[in-house]
Design brief:
It is a single chain. The chain contains 5 helices and no strands. It has helices spanning 3-20, 26-37, 63-79, 83-101, 105-114. The protein is globular and about 50 Å long. The chain has one domain. The protein is an all-alpha fold and 120 residues long. Helix 1 (3-20) crosses helix 2 and helix 3 packs antiparallel against helix 4 (83-101). The mean pLDDT is 81.
Length: 120
């Protein structure tokens, strides 16, 4: 086992532990969603988690939380070697970049409702 695989396994295990202890970070929810979607991955069946579309994890985050999630996603990107999983983390990375680029909640609402920035 190479160092990257070891660190990836440890990151997945930490995510599982935080979920079990009801102190999950947003990236933990994304990681578990990915593991549940991958039939080759085993996940502790005792984990109590709602499986929603991954983008919904961003809905109630502050800008600071989005930035932290963005950094956590970058860690998974640097460790992951599975092509399908890399695609998942790349999309999450792009989406977190997009959400972080919207300066305020009001601007985000304008963007969602009108399809463009409020100042345009």
């Amino acid at each position: 086992m190479c160092v990257h695989q070891f660190h990836l396994q440890q990151a997945k295990k930490r995510a599982e532990i935080r979920i079990q202890e009801n102190r999950a970070k947003p990236v933990d929810i994304l990681a578990i969603n990915l593991r549940l979607a991958d039939e080759s991955e085993s996940v502790d069946e005792s984990l109590e988690i709602d499986v929603d579309e991954p983008y919904t994890i961003f809905e109630n985050l502050t800008i600071q939380e989005v930035e932290e999630l963005h950094q956590d996603i970058q860690k998974y990107l640097s460790l992951e070697k599975n092509a399908a999983n890399l695609d998942f983390w790349r999309v999450c990375h792009l989406y977190s970049n997009h959400i972080a680029s919207i300066p305020t909640r009001l601007d985000a609402i304008y963007y969602i409702v009108l399809g463009h920035d409020c100042c345009v």
